[in-house]
Specification:
CATH superfamily of the largest domain: Vaccinia Virus protein VP39
CATH architecture of the largest domain: 3-Layer(aba) Sandwich
Strand order of the largest sheet: 4-3-2-5-6-9-7
Number of strands: 9
Radius of gyration: 20 Å
CATH class of the largest domain: Alpha Beta
Number of helices: 12
Order of helices and strands: HEHEHEHHEEHEHHEEEHHHH
CATH topology of the largest domain: Rossmann fold
Oligomer: single chain
Helix content: 25-40%
Number of domains: 2
């Protein structure tokens, strides 16, 4: 990673383990916390986000600030870190003092915060998401991208590996479902790399993966967001059934589009779901 010479103070920061011990910041299950302390890994996540110069990086759940440091080192214009745990905010105070205006720490629940109100475009979300709220956060951000594709220049997000596989799955895959359709409709998605449990403190019981999202631009004649959400929920809510049963409320549209009614939910492509939602919208 190109070292950002404008922030030489980053090299003088105490090691993260020292910060954790000093503030007695033990990872707490109720906050979905698993800390990433290896700078090589947090730097790799920052690299996966692409060129951050001139971009405001928004981070969810910074914990002791490992990824926060990497985002500052990678040259983000500024980092806005949203943290729910008051202990972590206290632990970030030293980093805040060194970073000054380059780091804003916001105390609150990411589910309740409209990220677009925190800074101007271009903005990117780069985060090791708390697993317990990762999917609702993602769906909320997708809806913002639906309303305006330039809302986020990109999102580089860590999920449980099985959630990441559901996001990038193709039709016919066992993991293909509602999340794949919603994500791939609005973004180009790519799984960048996996992380073993021992990369974290404490190690979670599951593997993790980084997924990079780039919003698609110039898409016109879009279906209604909530309509596509409802159709995919109905289809994949009964994924073992044929669509003539799981999507029986929409049969006239399915017939008009010439879809085979004996297909199952995982056999319809993202484009077919979009066409169906457009027709119903």
């Amino acid at each position: 990673m190109v070292h950002n010479l404008e922030r030489p103070w980053l090299d003088a920061l105490p090691p993260l383990r020292e910060v954790i011990n000093e503030h007695n910041l033990r990872a707490d299950k109720k906050f979905g916390q698993n800390f990433l302390l290896d700078q090589n890994i947090t730097d790799k996540i920052a690299r996966a986000a692409g060129n951050l110069e001139g971009i405001s990086a928004i981070e969810i759940g910074p914990g002791p600030g490992g990824l926060t440091r990497s985002l500052l080192r990678a040259g983000a214009k500024k980092v806005i870190a949203i943290e729910y745990d008051p202990r972590a905010i206290e632990a970030l105070s030293g980093l805040q003092a060194s970073a000054g205006q380059d780091l804003q720490i916001k105390h609150g629940d990411a589910l309740d915060i409209d990220l677009t109100q925190l800074c101007d475009e271009p903005r990117a979300i780069i985060a090791n998401l708390p697993y317990n709220i990762a999917t609702p956060l993602l769906v909320g951000w997708l809806e913002q991208i639906y309303n305006k594709s330039s809302t986020y220049s990109s999102m580089t997000l860590m999920f449980q590996k099985e959630v990441a596989e559901r996001i990038v799955a193709k039709e016919g895959d066992k993991a293909y479902g509602r999340l794949a359709v919603m994500c791939q409709w609005l973004c180009d998605v790519k799984k960048v790399f996996d992380l073993p449990p021992n990369a974290f403190t404490p190690p979670p019981k599951v593997k993790s993966s980084i997924v990079h999202f780039v919003p698609k631009t110039g898409q016109s004649n879009q279906p209604d967001f909530k309509k596509l959400e409802a159709i995919t929920a109905a289809a994949f809510g009964q994924r073992r059934k044929m669509i003539r049963s799981s999507l029986k409320d929409y049969m006239e549209h399915i017939e008009a589009l010439g879809f085979d009614p004996t297909l199952r939910a995982e056999n319809l492509s993202v484009e077919q779901y979009i066409d169906l939602a457009k027709r119903i919208s």
